[in-house]
């Protein structure tokens, strides 16, 4: 085929891609539907001109179009990895974890239910063997990511709804293609009734093998990209190679699911990339992938649509009945999961609630597209599949895809509108009015400065200022005096605005590199939870999200168990270091929010709401400070090292700004600027290294680190080590309850505790002890002791404590000082006041 003609056709396809998006916006139709229609028209036109006797002038073009190397492998090995990989890079994984149960139900359970529902329905309605029917069920059970994501983004669907749909469409490809591979093998072997137990037994192996392959490939890629920190183009090139190598490696070498491998690789890069790559390089990498995915998604639709006329050439009347069976069975399977299983899981408190309008939108948003056509094409291309089965698979898959794209795709916007999901809630309406009022106030100040700088005519300035002032007054009045907003809704509006500004502040700090790239995604995710918490739950939702941002999660507790029981310290070290940096970042951002409350919110909502927001902000600052202080007590010196690192990063940012300003002002040339920046990049790489945190200590080492027992010889330490019992407690655990008889003394090897008695509280940290006064005074304890961070305690029973106290002068001095601090007379507490320190 003429290379010039092929190049012209490819360039024309990109021209169509460029025209399709504004055309879709003008017609108010989904972009993917326009691409599919254009592809079908091109395919029909090529067939028409090749077979008509009207003219032969366009035959070479028609032959070139129909002769394009469009094979199933092109879709599966070239386009599909691109789409899946970019989708994983663009996902907010931490936010998606909030809805992981409904996502997995739709991505895995719904695929399996749809496969078997469609398969057995077809087996009942046709003469096809069961294996072929299940193969068709697997082909039509996958929603297309490029179709679904593009449509939901174009209609401004609610973020949570779009998140569930995106998660489903991303992950269900893997499940459907894995099932497709299993049943395709049975069909090619000529087995009419497959061994379903054997098929399902292989399913977990395909997923596990693909996940491990993708994870390993991504880890190697991230290591290489981090090694080339100064070469951004090299990093982007490695990222381009990653999904294809992961896909081919899993499919060809491991025999696992290539789709799962690509998803695992993308998820791993999404989680680890921001912490290992420079912020600007990571942002540029994601932008490149957005462009690649846009082209791949558009080409896959056009090229797949070109095949539709050929796949439907042999359609018969009875095939329409089978297409109807497929449509009804697929919808019924989706209804079972959405309106049967999900509400049941919500009732059992396993899954968060998914509102009924959301479930209806998800039901109608289950579009099929190029992935379904590619799998059908793989069947029609296989010479090992009987001709009759090839024809039916091609027709049913194509017919079902056209039904979802043309009927569901074109009416999805109408369904969203009928469900009311495109309308702003009263809170959002009020928020929009608030945004207008705040924006106009800022604009008025900026316009005033501009008119002063340009020395414009006073009459013109006065008239325009009056006109603008009237609009501003109307906007402020609308924001303040909306009759449809209750006081609690005004609080919600203020909290949403505050959380939104917090997110903007975080983004600014990340760009300035005051907050490290490692923590950027987590602090942004916490800010998103604050926004959604305030939007859905008002003050209580905001406070819950704030407490969650400083709480120890299940992962942290699991890491603590691994450290204490299995002596595996790596996860706990990493999570503890992350927590230090997270709390420092939160404290940095929270202290900047007070000015926003006074400057913006007070002008719109008045002093009363501003004072309330100051109170809520003060509580968050106190919670962060308490958590940070607990870590300082637990690991003295580490927080100071992180603060030194923060100061170094800030100084480097300011230094870079000065060099850039001098370069722009012409004070230094390009050569000097390049040399200075090279030196700065090297110093920045060193400043980004986080100090090492060592928490893996043994009992004897813990005893030796306590100030009370320093200076003892090894034999004495070993005896003490045998006498002590080690106890690990998590944050919030009650160690000693009020009004209980004391039986032990506790020494804090690491961590921090809070003591509460008679309305007063005080804290103890590493090296201090508690419980000794209740034993020595022989009375029921009146103090409650609670851990404020995960802590390691050394516990000594009463008998051993008394023996140790009688021998250790240092311990006696510590007990005496503790008694004097509490106003207790220390005389008579010790059995032998003149003893020598022996052990």
Top CATH class of the largest domain: Mainly Alpha
N/C terminus separation: 92 Å
Determine the CATH topology of the largest domain: Na+/H+ antiporter like fold
Q: Give the strand order of the largest sheet, numbering strands 1, 2, ... along the chain.
A: 1-8-3-6
Number of strands: 8
Give the class from helix and strand content and strand pairing: mainly alpha
What is the strand content? under 5%
Low-pLDDT segments, ≥5 res? 833-839
Please describe the biggest sheet, giving its number of strands, its sense, and whether it closes into a barrel: 4 strands, antiparallel
What share of residues is helical? Answer: over 70%
Roughly what is the average pLDDT, rounded to an integer? 78
InterPro entries: Cation/H_exchanger_CPA1, Cation/H_exchanger_TM, cNMP-bd_dom, cNMP-bd_dom_sf, RmlC-like_jellyroll
Transmembrane segments: 6-24, 31-50, 70-89, 101-122, 128-149, 170-191, 203-224, 244-268, 288-308, 320-341, 361-380, 392-416
GO biological process, one term: sodium ion import across plasma membrane
GO molecular function, one term: sodium:proton antiporter activity
């Amino acid at each position: 085929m003429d290379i010039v003609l092929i190049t012209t056709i490819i360039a024309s396809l990109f021209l169509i891609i460029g025209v399709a998006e504004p055309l879709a916006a003008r017609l108010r139709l989904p972009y993917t539907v326009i691409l599919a229609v254009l592809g079908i028209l091109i395919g029909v036109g090529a067939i028409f001109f090749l077979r008509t006797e009207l003219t032969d002038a366009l035959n070479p073009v028609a032959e070139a179009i129909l002769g394009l190397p469009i094979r199933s492998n092109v879709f599966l090995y070239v386009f599909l990895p691109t789409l899946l990989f970019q989708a994983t890079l663009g996902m907010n994984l931490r936010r998606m974890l909030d809805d992981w149960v409904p996502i997995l139900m739709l991505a895995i359970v719904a695929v399996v239910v749809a496969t078997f529902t469609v398969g057995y329905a077809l087996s009942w309605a046709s003469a096809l063997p069961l294996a072929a029917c299940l193969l068709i069920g697997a082909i039509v059970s996958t929603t297309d990511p490029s179709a679904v994501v593009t449509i939901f983004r174009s209609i401004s669907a609610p973020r949570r709804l779009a998140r569930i749909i995106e998660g489903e469409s991303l992950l269900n490809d893997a499940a459907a293609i894995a099932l497709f591979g299993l049943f395709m093998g049975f069909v090619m072997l000529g087995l009419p009734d497959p061994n379903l137990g054997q098929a399902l037994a292989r399913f977990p192996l395909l997923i596990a093998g693909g996940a491990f392959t993708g994870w390993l490939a991504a880890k190697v890629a991230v290591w290489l990209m981090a090694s080339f920190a100064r070469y951004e183009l090299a990093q982007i090139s490695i990222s381009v190679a990653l999904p294809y190598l992961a896909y081919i490696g899993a499919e060809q070498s491991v025999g696992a699911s290539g789709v799962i491998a690509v998803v695992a690789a993308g998820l791993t890069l999404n989680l680890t990339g921001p912490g290992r790559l420079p912020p600007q390089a990571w942002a540029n990498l994601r932008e490149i992938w957005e462009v690649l995915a846009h082209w791949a998604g558009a080409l896959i639709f056009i090229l797949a649509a070109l095949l539709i006329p050929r796949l439907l050439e042999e359609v018969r009347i009875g095939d329409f009945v089978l297409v109807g069976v497929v449509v009804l069975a697929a919808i019924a399977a989706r209804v079972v999961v959405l309106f049967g299983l999900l509400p049941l899981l919500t009732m059992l408190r396993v899954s968060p609630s998914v509102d009924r309008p959301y479930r209806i939108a998800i039901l109608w948003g289950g579009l099929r597209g190029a992935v379904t056509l590619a799998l059908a094409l793989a069947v029609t291309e296989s010479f090992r599949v009987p001709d009759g089965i090839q024809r039916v698979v091609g027709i049913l898959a194509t017919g079902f895809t056209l039904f979802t794209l043309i009927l569901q795709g074109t009416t999805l916007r109408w369904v969203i509108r009928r469900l009311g999901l495109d309308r702003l809630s009263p809170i959002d309406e009020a928020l929009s009015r608030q945004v207008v009022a705040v924006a106009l106030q800022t604009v008025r100040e900026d316009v005033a400065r501009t008119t002063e700088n340009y020395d414009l005519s006073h009459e013109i300035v006065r008239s325009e200022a009056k006109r603008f002032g009237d609009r501003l007054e109307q906007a402020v009045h609308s924001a303040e005096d909306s009759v449809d907003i209750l006081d609690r809704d005004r609080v919600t509006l203020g909290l949403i605005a505050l959380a939104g500004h917090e997110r903007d502040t975080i983004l600014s700090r990340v760009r300035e590199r005051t907050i490290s790239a490692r923590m950027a995604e987590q602090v942004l995710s916490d800010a998103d939870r604050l926004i959604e918490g305030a939007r859905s739950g008002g003050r209580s939702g905001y406070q819950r999200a704030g407490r969650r941002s400083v709480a120890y999660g299940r992962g942290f507790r699991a890491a603590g168990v691994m450290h204490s029981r299995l002596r595996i310290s790596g996860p706990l070290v990493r999570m503890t270091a992350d927590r230090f940096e997270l709390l420092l970042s939160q404290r940095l951002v929270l202290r900047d929010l007070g000015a926003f409350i006074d400057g913006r919110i007070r002008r719109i909502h008045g002093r009363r709401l501003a004072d309330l927001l100051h109170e809520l902000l003060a509580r968050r600052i106190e919670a962060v400070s308490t958590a940070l202080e607990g870590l300082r007590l637990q690991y003295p010196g580490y927080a100071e090292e992180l603060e030194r690192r923060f100061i170094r990063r800030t100084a480097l940012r300011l230094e870079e700004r000065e060099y850039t300003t001098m370069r722009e002002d012409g004070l230094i040339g390009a050569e000097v600027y390049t040399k200075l920046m090279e030196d700065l990049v090297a110093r920045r790489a060193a400043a980004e290294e986080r100090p090492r945190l060592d928490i893996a200590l043994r009992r004897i080492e813990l005893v030796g680190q306590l100030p009370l027992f320093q200076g003892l010889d090894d034999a004495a330490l070993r005896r003490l080590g045998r006498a002590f019992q080690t106890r690990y407690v998590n944050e919030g655990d009650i160690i000693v309850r009020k009004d209980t008889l004391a039986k032990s003394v506790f020494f804090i090897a690491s961590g921090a505790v809070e003591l509460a008695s008679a309305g007063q509280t005080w804290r103890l940290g590493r090296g201090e002890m508690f419980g000794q006064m209740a034993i020595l005074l022989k009375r029921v304890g009146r103090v409650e002791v609670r851990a404020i961070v995960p802590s390691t305690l050394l516990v000594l029973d009463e008998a051993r404590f008394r023996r140790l106290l009688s021998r250790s002068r240092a311990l006696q001095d510590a007990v005496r000082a503790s008694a004097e601090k509490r106003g207790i007379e220390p005389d008579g507490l010790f059995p032998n006041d003149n003893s020598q320190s022996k052990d």
